[in-house]
Amino acid sequence: MNTRHRHNTCRLIAALVLATLSAMPSAAQDDALEYTKEIGAGLGLNFMLSDLNNKWYGASHLSAQGMMRFIISPRMAIKTTLGYNAVKDDTEGVKDFYPAQLGQSGTERLQYSMSGGIIDLNALYELHFLPYGWYRNYLGHKRLTPYLQLGVGMLYSTAGKAFTVDLPVGLGVKYKIGKRLNLSLDWTLHFTPSDKLDGLNAPAGIEGSGFHGKDFYSKTMLSLTYDISPKCPTCNKAE
Length: 239
Fold this sequence. Notes:
Elements: H1 3-31, E1 35-49, E2 61-73, E3 76-90, E4 113-128, E5 144-157, E6 162-176, E7 181-191, E8 216-230
């Protein structure tokens, strides 16, 4: 190999090394990006605490929801969900006596069944017990953390043709299974001021006040989300 060819080869190798070195910080920077949102979906079980059921996880049915999380910090997030919760129950196993003619005395028991679903839209504040993230760094991010959640929402029950607000509270745990993948298991109890979610309004003739004597429902959900919308690494602003 002559001198000219050796010089050209050396120049080519030097150019490749420089290109590789210049690309490495950029790749590392991309890997260390933080994201401002998560999008995903979940499946689980729900049960209603109402005039037809007073047992936890009695008459459980499937729930499904789509969700988006807005990440405030490693310690906090706002979760929005749109879900459908199948419900079905009857008076077969009810121990309380409900008269066949609601609001009237009598000896004949009420025979009633309902089926349908609860469509709910909720926004929940999540408070993490530990700073949540993929990279440990100086903040000590953890891939696994439990959290508290509470929020507000609205729902429509197709079984009772009732529209009302709901106040969900609950607990959860989330685990970062990948740089941008998150798995969460959470439980919420949804308080409502309505006694019509199951289609029965005070069948025993006793009206409740506030949240007392009203219909509640609970959901246990397993959800998978994907990080989107990276933060700007230089301006520190969300895209």
